[in-house]
Amino acid sequence: MKLTVLGCSGGIGSGRHTTGLLVDDDILIDAGTGITTLDFEQLQAIDHVFLTHAHLDHVLGLPLLLDSVGDLREAPLIVHALPEVLQVLSDHLFNWQLWPDFRKIPSEDAPWLRFEPLGFGEVCTVDGRSFRPLPANHVVPACGLHVFAEAGGIVFSGDTTHSEAFVAALNAIPDLRHLIIETSFENALAAIAEVSKHHWPDSLAAELNGVKIAPAVWITHLKPGNESAIMNELREAAPAWRIEALMQGQVIEI
């Protein structure tokens, strides 16, 4: 199993792209602007999308993906997410006002898009790669994702702040090899992080204190222009951990 980072920034500008992770060549985790780095043939190869939540920086590429290659597909693109997330997409995105409802194009019997709810406690397996929602604590319904195959697994936090349930879930994965977790703001902006339910360096360090396993830790969702400051504060706050910034174009193999 191979995970390619298409986008991992908390914003755009100067080549930055928002969250999109490609598993092998046919599955997306979130669909932010990062998917615009794929060529046309790569877009055609995507059959499944797993979403952590419905904020625009994680879903805005989805309607354009369908608009670009929907007519070339032999089967619907399947979007997997919490039921509450799919409801937001139905009400506010694929609603014929902001964007056409591709669940009914070209017909309800043969659509380009299909929603499949994936709730907590459930696992979806696609050709030997399994996806399991984990608890998260964000301002909208959200989850992290445990992505695993026979050789081990990766956890992606999605957008979250402190969550004892998330830490407990991590500690229950003894073969976890990589943890991709967000830290969006510097310590000086902790008040903004708190109200928007994101991590800042001191809050993530406190979270890591409760983690009893030892995966590689990769930081995502860094706000543009503040990346170096956030990473420096993280390394000072959590010196026992080897922490690196996730990079666009990076490949993680399991």
TrEMBL record:
Q: Which GO terms describe its biological process?
A: cAMP catabolic process
Recorded GO MF terms: 3',5'-cyclic-AMP phosphodiesterase activity
**Domain of life here?**
Bacteria
A Pfam family in this protein?
A: Lactamase_B_2
Under what name is this protein listed? cAMP phosphodiesterase class-II
Metallo-beta-lactamase domain location, by residue?
17-199
TM stretches of this protein: none
According to its UniProt entry, this protein's organism is: Thiobacillus denitrificans (strain ATCC 25259 / T1)
- Per its UniProt record, what CDD domains does this chain match? class_II_PDE_MBL-fold
UniProt-listed Gene3D superfamilies: Ribonuclease Z/Hydroxyacylglutathione hydrolase-like (3.60.15.10)
